[in-house]
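Q: Got a minute? One more chain.
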Amino acid sequence: MEIMVALSLPRDAASVPVSRQVLDACLETLGITPETRGDIALALSEACANVILHAGPGDDYAVTASTRAGRCVIEVVDNGHRSGNDGLVPQPRGPVGALAENGRGLQIIDAVVDDLTLSGDGRNGVTVHFEKELDWLPGAVAEHLLAAD
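A: Always. Here it is, folded:
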């Protein structure tokens, strides 16, 4: 069994807390621990903010989240053209200067999730894919529903 949420959002800063709150409410209903939900919310916020800051104006982006096999799998898909000259997919690891104002988002995501991958060519969009092992509250009904498979 898989439980899935899909959102299509405008590329606007106001969409970040909306996506975070919708997903957090779903995970809370399923019985996911507050600590795990917090890590997922932080990673999702960083991924959505990355789309808003680095993609071209006026486009939408998509967020899909699913729970399967004891994990939450999230993809933030930017189908727009990225701003900047290089068009390259950024790498999640590597040092960022101590005084840099940007460039920590992927490092933050990588620090709080179990798996992080980026795909796409950067010029025609990027997909941020991350997964987090789910920790359940005692007696969570959804844990039993998902384990029934």
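A: The radius of gyration is 16 Å.
Q: Perfect, thanks.
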